[in-house]
């Protein structure tokens, strides 16, 4: 059954959570957006060694549960590993959560939440 148009009609942005190189590349592609004042929410988060797991999880939850303007959340796989229960627990159609590789951390399909669901669907 198809979702009603109201579930996705206002979702126009791509959000990104990742290391500096990944976020910079995606922002250079024109994806960056900051909402109007007074709250001025960004659609990206640069994660480094000092970024706390609670901050990453809070931004992830904001992008997936609170904001209704985000259609896709791109997250570096090594960052998703830090908040794996939240990533694996998110099963809604919108926004789509996609794990991407980074320069220093190769992609591992065994850890990807989407690939896990696909394997489960096909009975593997």
UniProtKB/TrEMBL annotation:
Keywords: Hydrogen ion transport, Ion transport, Membrane, Transport, Vacuole. SUPFAM superfamilies: AtpF-like (SSF159468). One of its GO terms (molecular function) is proton-transporting ATPase activity, rotational mechanism. It is found in: Vacuole membrane. GO terms for cellular component: fungal-type vacuole membrane; proton-transporting V-type ATPase, V1 domain. InterPro entries: ATPase_V1-cplx_f_g_su (IPR008218), ATPase_V1-cplx_fsu_euk (IPR005772), ATPase_V1_fsu_sf (IPR036906). It is a peripheral membrane protein. It comes from the Eukaryota. PANTHER family: V-TYPE PROTON ATPASE SUBUNIT F, VACUOLAR ATP SYNTHASE SUBUNIT F. V-ATPase is a heteromultimeric enzyme composed of a peripheral catalytic V1 complex (components A to H) attached to an integral membrane V0 proton pore complex (components: a, c, c', c'', d, e, f and VOA1). V-ATPase is a heteromultimeric enzyme made up of two complexes: the ATP-hydrolytic V1 complex and the proton translocation V0 complex. Belongs to the V-ATPase F subunit family. This is V-type proton ATPase subunit F. It comes from Friedmanniomyces endolithicus. The lineage of its organism: Eukaryota, Fungi, Dikarya, Ascomycota, Pezizomycotina.
């Amino acid at each position: 059954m198809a979702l009603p148009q109201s579930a996705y009609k206002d979702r126009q942005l791509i959000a990104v959570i990742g290391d500096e190189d990944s976020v910079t590349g995606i922002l250079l592609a024109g994806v960056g957006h900051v909402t109007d004042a007074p709250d001025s929410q960004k659609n990206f988060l640069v994660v480094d060694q000092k970024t706390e797991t609670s901050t990453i999880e809070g931004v992830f939850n904001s992008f997936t549960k609170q904001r209704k303007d985000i259609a896709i959340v791109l997250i570096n796989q090594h960052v998703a590993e830090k908040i794996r229960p939240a990533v694996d627990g998110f099963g809604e159609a919108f926004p789509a959560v996609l794990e991407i590789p980074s320069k220093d951390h190769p992609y591992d399909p065994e850890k990807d939440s989407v690939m896990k669901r696909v394997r489960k669907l096909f009975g593997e």
